[in-house]
Amino acid sequence: MSREGPRVLPLSEDEWTSEQRELLSVGKPARVLNIFRTLVRHPDLYRKWNPFGAQVLLKSTLDARTRELLILRTGHLCRSAYEFYQHSEIAKRVGISAEEIEQVKLGPSAPQWTQLEQSALSAADELHENQRISDDTWRALSAHYNEKQLIDLIFVVGQYTMVAMALNSLGVQIESEPGQP
Questions:
Q1: What is the pTM of this model?
Q2: What Cα–Cα distance (Å) separates residue 15 from each residue in 37, 38, 40, 122, 140?
Q3: Residues 8 and 167: beta-carbon distance below 8 Å
Q4: CATH fourth-level superfamily of 64-169
């Protein structure tokens, strides 16, 4: 994340064009996050990316716990404070404890992970480091996951690596609490 603030400012609501307003109203969010307020500056890209992101986040064949552990690990590896913060909040809603969220930073070697969680976190590390899951990790994952789940695992890490690159490069800032500067 940029230490000096955003490189590309998120649009305030009074700056939205009718096209951007329509794009940002999908799902009727109570609060439009800075990631969306920033990326909607490129409406054509946003229109294509947002459904893909929703597929990876909301329609994955992976269980929510595994998906969020993968996203948190990816956010940590990519040094994306915004991604890690936002998905820490989501992780809590799907039953991941604050202690487990902190342990994600230690990776697959942290003692509380199940064997499957260790393998999933190893896959995130390997994809980050080598852009490939090792044969040993693939075998361990294949013992539990079907082909669709294995593909989803790769795309979760890939999607959130790309998102982290955008967040970090654009300098997207974590939102302040409503009513605070």
A1: 0.93
A2: 10, 12, 11, 43, 50
A3: no
A4: AhpD-like (1.20.1290.10)
